Amino acid sequence: MTSTSTSPITGGPRTDQALRPGSRWLSPILLANLVAEVAIVITGGLVRVTGSGLGCPTWPECVDGSITPTIDQAEGIHKWIEFGNRTLTGVLGLLALATIVAVWRWAPRRAMKVAAVTVFVGVLVQAVLGGITVLLGLHPATVAAHFLVSMGLVAAASYLWIARHETGAAPLPLVPPIVTRLAWATTAVGGVVLFLGTLVTGSGPHSGDADEPARLGFDPRTISWLHADLVMLFVGLVVATWLTARLTSKDADRAPGRAWFAVLAVSLAQGVVGYVQYFTNLPEALVIAHMLGATLLVVALTNGILALRRR
Length: 311
Known about the structure:
Elements: E1 2-6, E2 13-17, H1 26-49, H2 77-106, H3 110-135, H4 140-162, E3 172-173, H5 177-202, H6 220-248, H7 255-279, H8 284-306, E4 309-310
Antiparallel strand pairs: 1-2, 3-4
């Protein structure tokens, strides 16, 4: 479905693909999908800090002969925590499927369709990867991969939510190309920060395995400070991106500056939580808060990249 209108930029004619009738359902579905992607990270963090990663010692069953936890299981409360996380994965799969249907029916752009399929396939990959993680006794490589895939799915779900009302018109850059490249470089460094964060967690007392807390060979103090050093570099890049986006935005558009200020605010909050949890011996509540901050940082970075252009 197309509609012809006047471009707000050039004043000339423009043909855009419009959202289709019934699209009022698009936003709620995409928002629910994003919230669920964030929630699965938080419940995964709860599994980790409580040492419940093997609360259901088999997969896909919770215990041999039963999909659900049984009364006589020795894992106690841990079985319910792990089973709750698995159950949310099922809900996430249904929402991802609903997202595909909604995007195909009501969103006009191919990129959104690709992102919707990516989320659905990613949820399936996560389910299998979660099973492999259990079967391998919470191997650090699979635990880290499990988290990083979730970050990718949060980014894709964020893109779907932020871009849900965009038309099929070609994007109009709002900042010079060098600012866009700086933003992408900053985002890439942010990805490395997240990766190092998984090494920090895998080397500390909340690595996910109640019997063997430190499953990686890194010294927790050394890897923590390496992570902190890269965070400082990242924050510096965020400040540079924010200032350049704010000062060079075309047509006095404030969206790029506002979006990157949000990235800066989330980054600083994450830094504060990270330092506090380090110097207070990693209390569980702050570990969960730090994981929530990581997902919010991914959302903010996705928004920051998209805010550099207008459709």
